[in-house]
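Dear colleague,

Thank you for sharing your sequence with our group. We've completed the structure prediction you requested, and as agreed, I am returning the results in plain text so they can be pasted directly into your records. Please verify that the sequence below matches your submission; if there's any discrepancy, let me know and we will rerun it promptly.
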Amino acid sequence: MTKHETAKYGQIVLVFQGGGALGAYQAGVYQALHEAGIEPDWVIGTSIGAINAALIAGNAPADRLERLEAFWHRVEYPLPADTMAVLPGCTPMSRLLTMLYGLPAFFEPNPMTLMGNAWPLGAENAGHYSTAPLRRTLTELVDFDRINRHETRISVGAANVCTSQMHYFDSRDQEFRVEHVMASGALPPAFPAVRVDGELYWDGGILSNTPLEAIFDDNPRRSALVFSVHVWNPDGQEPVTLGQVLNRQKDVQFASRSRTQIARQKQIHKLRHVIANLSQRLPEAERASNEVAELASYGCVTQMHVVALVAPALPNEDNTKDIDFSTGGIRDRWEAGYAQTKAAIAQAPWAAPTDPLEGVILHRFTP
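Please find the predicted structure tokens below.
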């Protein structure tokens, strides 16, 4: 698709969930979009989604895929996804090594945590790991000056530690820095909080892991073709073992009520379209009055096509899948994102005729 072909849908938006190693699926999604000539005007992410978003927004289109590959190569463990566990049913070796030693380009153990939970570490060091390696990696791979030239908009979600409020750092509204990405990925208690402009922030995923709200609440509202990339599956079977319970619990928690959110937004946007439609049916003299004009301002004629891409589960994955940085795990998730997005582009359901009263149209692609 050319820029001209996508322009009729408004802005192109990528929305990335948080999910650690599961974020390799997002990189595969971007590769398929890139090869199809679909480049984002706006990238929204939380946690690992914020990192992938920064790698995209902070590089020229021709360099984005190379930088994504560089990041995921740096954080991988050179082991296959199905590396034998120490004992049957136990955590695979690559994930045990990640927990013990961290990832050299991402995070490293904080030895001071061995002093105990009551030891005063300081607000910006209170985590089992230090993310100083991630800061260095992002500084090398992301051109923040490019982001601040406003070529591609980026928003990343973070949770204010002291107010429990979700906050989106947005390159449209402020100078965008590495601290904003770091804050979005500061998942407690593994990673310490990050201070930005005097306020302390944790990973936005603990409040809202599917940052669609950023586009729905944007002002001014614009029509859009939104690729919402879900690395946690809201659908699953009934768990019958403790391991399955732990795995399913993570999916339910970090799927972040995305279906409810979209259903609610479909209702709200349909009402906005109804208001706009009704206001146009009033006599011109009525529409010119201040009172009617104020009421009509609640109407809207923008339309958003939301393409929900849901990552498949890998064979025998468990509740530690988000730290599966093995070579095989990253490859399999990347390839899954690539294949699923290519299939979605081939179908292009957003090109089909739609009800003019619908403001949000959902196209869901599941494994």
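Summary note from our side: The chain has 14 helices and eleven strands.

Kind regards,
the structure core
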